[in-house]
Amino acid sequence: MIFGKRAREHESKLATKIRISYLLILLPNIIFMIYVFHGLWMTNERYKDMLNSVVAASEFSLDFKEDFDYETYLLIVGNVTWEDSNLPTLLQDARKVVDGLKDYTDTHDNQKRLASAEKYLNNLETYTDRIKENLEYGNKYEANITIWENDVQIVTGLLQETINEYIYYENRQLQVTQSRNRELFKKTIEISLVIFAAILTAIALISFWMPNWITKPIEDQVKEEQKQLRKAEFELLQAQINPHFLYNTLDAIVWSAEAGNQKQVVSMVGSLSEFFRASLNKGKEIVSIREELQHVTSYLEIQQVRYQDILTYEINVAKDIYNYSIPKITIQPIVENALYHGIKNRRGGGKITITGVENKDELTILVHDDGAGMDEERLKEVREGIIRNNPDKNAIYGLYNVNERIRLNFGDEYGITVDSTIGKGTDVVIHLPKILTDSVKN
């Protein structure tokens, strides 16, 4: 009885020692896991806040200055009454965006920029109130024109510039956070290898399956985070507006206005407004083919005014596929590539044709140009660049970006294919699944 009791006590102590040894082995790993997931959660939350900040700032109308200046002028010259004017709505929408941004940014400089933006909005409200009072008490046209020229136009320009600076510095913070994430992932992998080796040495005889059980969730988490980071990078890239296109378009509008071509000015301003509205599209990543075609139509209308001597286009997409899904800003980069690398490089210009049909298993949208085309060597380089992880040429990167975003959203079996003949033109085919827009969650 005594021996049995001692044996049981010995077994109990041994079991206790084994449990303690397991705890001593697992405790560092548990602490490390908590540290990793807490770090990932904190960096993801910060990254998400900055992304939300950039998206919210992007809702600030890129046409605010032009719209506000134009609405103010219409009020001064009497084309609209104060009751019918859009000025209060424009100010209210701008304030809503600025107030919303205060909850996102935590940098001192961007907080100061938001304070400046709020001050500019207060100034604009003061100026519009003065104009309203002048209209009510004697219609002081000269005084109102002076306010418009010396106050309103300057402050709207400062406000637009301030919001653009805010977006720029938030994007820089995103890059810093990405760098920190990469360092965290690197340290995670390094520490994981050390702990993995220690655990493998300590418990290899009794639990050879534990290393896989421990490391698999971390590896899956890292892969998912890397995928989300890549997707976020592409969303930021496609959300950025090409300043050269904007400047050139505004220059063309100014030239048309100076030439007295009012209809062309109205048409270009409308197309530019539709282009940017479709580019933002309330932050949605997936849109309908109908919306995507409206976006590319606005782009082509603008470019046709600029390149009217060399560019014609035709859009002939079956209406049956209008309600299917497509990543936002997919067709326009391909059309831009066709214009700048195909049509402009051909003597006498050419034509861009967009067609789209529903096939048995997928949708196909063809962007064809009869421009300069490519020889076999260049075509091979472009095809390889589309599927390469780090394409090094800008002309290839636009196509690579489109292809990669389609793959990230719909799978590796979808994307774009390119065919070209030197002197005859280029075909870019977009392959998409048949998914109705309402069934896709952005």
Biggest sheet: strands side by side, in what order? 2-4-5-7-6
Q: Helical content, roughly?
A: 55-70%
Strand content: 5-15%
Shape: flat
State the helix count: 12
Q: What structural class do helix, strand and pairing data support?
A: alpha+beta
Report the C-alpha radius of gyration, rounded.
30 Å
Low-confidence stretches: 1-7
- Give the oligomer, counting copies of the same chain as homo and different chains as hetero: single chain
**What is the domain tally?**
2
State the major sheet: 5 strands, mixed
Q: What's the mean pLDDT score?
A: 76
Work out the number of β strands: 7
**Span between termini:** 72 Å
Description of the structure:
This protein is α+β, with helices and mostly antiparallel strands and 442 residues long. It has two domains: 15-239; 243-439, Heat Shock Protein 90 (2-Layer Sandwich), CATH 3.30.565.10. The protein has helices at 2-58, 64-77, 87-101, 108-136, 141-203, 210-239, 243-258, 262-280, 289-306, 331-343, 376-387, 394-410, and strands spanning 286-288, 311-317, 325-327, 350-358, 363-369, 415-421, 425-432. The strands form two sheets. A five-stranded mixed β-sheet has the order 2-4-5-7-6. Strands 1-3 form a two-stranded antiparallel ribbon. Strand 6 and strand 7 (425-432) form a beta hairpin. Helix 10 runs antiparallel to helix 12 (394-410). The longest helix is centred in the middle third of the chain and has 63 residues, at 141-203. Mean pLDDT is 76; it is low at 1-7.
